[in-house]
Amino acid sequence: MIAPDLPTAVDRLRDLIESSDVVLPFTGAGISTECGIPDFRSPGGIWTKMAPIPFDEFVSSQSMRDEAWRRRFAMQDQFGDARPGRGHRALAALHRQGKAPAVITQNIDNLHQDSGIPAANVIELHGNTTYALCLDCNKRYELPWVRERFDKAGGRAPDCPHCSGFIKTATISFGQAMPEDAMRRAGELTESCDLFLAIGSSLVVWPAAGFPLMAKRRGARLAIINREATDFDDIADLVIRDDIGAVLEPLMTR
Ligand code: NAD
Ligand code: ZN
After folding, report:
1. Exposed, middle or buried: residue 152 (CB in 10 Å: 0-12, 13-18, 19+)?
2. Is the pLDDT reported for residue 44 higher than 70?
3. Please, which residues bridge with residue 122 across strands?
4. Is 169 near ligand 1, meaning CB less than 6 Å away?
5. Ligand 1 near 37 CB (within 6 A)
6. In angstroms, rounded to a whole number, what is the distance separating the alpha carbons of residues 148 and 76?
7. What is the mean pLDDT of residues 168-182?
8. Per-residue pLDDT tens digits for 54-99
9. How far is the CA of 124 from the centre of ligand 1 (A)?
10. Is 126 one of the annotated active-site residues of the chain?
11. Is there a contact between 110 and 127 (Cβ–Cβ < 8 Å)?
């Protein structure tokens, strides 16, 4: 059912959460828009102006790696200071209350960790853009380290000093393999939850979009919070087409 108004939505959501033992939040870019990070599909965002660089282009061309890092540093200047929003804080509260053992996220912005959920309990399906990894030896590099070398070399992306591998943000690009461990854990959690909360995702990016479907097939209840309709609204037990921060903020006070 679609909640008719905000107070009803909040009441229904609270009832669903209170009658569940294991709540599994699954978040997309919509939870971070109030923090100033644009989502993928809303009009006007940087993502609509710059098509993402697919993985095969990143590994096959120095100029694509340079471009990827140029964009990354431009993003850092725009949203590097973003702080968790009301949605992140409400989910951190659910975690502390023991209701939500972990959060599955498609986001790469680290804001769930910043809101206080331990990194081990944030399952990142698309990686994390706040640090970098060598694609060959997996050594971790921090962004200021990459930037210093990038700037000194006049905008050329640096390679790994240990193995000469390519250094890339720790994100999963289109065409790159999904992270096995995160996918496995997300699947296990989805099978064991009794309430799956899809928050701020258009639910069109696969295989991530398969999780709400899997939850429903396994007998969990499904609630969708997104200001636009999604393809899964018909199978959801509760659909809330409202602002995420406004819907989740009341959950912080019981
Ligand atoms: P999406 O852009 O496809 O969908 C976001 C949805 O959230 C949209 O349907 C939009 O209507 C809704 N939304 C936006 N702000 C909202 C608000 N305040 N209240 C309610 N609804 C709101 O995002 P997606 O499904 O996560 O897929 C995009 C992919 O791009 C992700 O997989 C992710 O890897 C990447 N991405 C990440 C970030 C981030 O880390 N913050 C930002 C943009 C894109
Ligand atoms: Zn290396």
Report:
1. exposed
2. no
3. 103
4. no
5. yes
6. 14
7. 96
8. 999 999 999 999 999 999 999 999 899 999 999 999 999 999 999 9
9. 14
10. yes
11. no
